[in-house]
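re: ur msg from earlier - yeah i can do the nickel (II) ion complex, just paste it... oh wait u already did. ok heres what im feeding in:
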Amino acid sequence: MDNIQALYQKAMKFAGEKHRNQTVPGSTANYLLHLSNVAMEILVIYIESPSFDLALAVQTAILHDTLEDTDATYEELEEQFGMKVAEAVLALTKNPTLVGKRQKMEDSVNRINALGPEVGMVKLADRITNLQAPPAHWSQDKRGRYLDEAVFISEQLTGKHAYLEARLRDKIEGYREFV
Ligand code: NI
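and the outut:
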């Protein structure tokens, strides 16, 4: 197995520099808060069931928003982290030429499902992390749409990792109190 600690640190440094001006929505915390939480979900489930490529999953978790939110390029990711990580991050990135949130999500989910389970696991971990109490300014409508989107992800991304899938279903049930 590759040295996970070194891969984690390299990906965190890259992400930390790329996301340096970004904060977590509804918080003043630096965006690394979100990325480290997603990586943490992956590390914890590896203890539960070490049945997947941890190096791929952890690097993808840390880098998953770099193409969508920063000036990072696919080529840069491929050169620094390899083709599998770059492909995974690309699948987790919404296609900006599509119109409508739902269409973008469906397209991304299809591309995620065409790759190995690690990519879907990062999407599940991402949504688990994001299903905390919503920002106070979010309308009832927005909360409802966010919940619907989480249900869609939960229904579409199956066969990835049983524990993570069950954890997302639990988080969805918990989120209903905010809607
Ligand atoms: Ni994310």
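cool cool. The mean pLDDT is 96. ping me if u need the other ligands too
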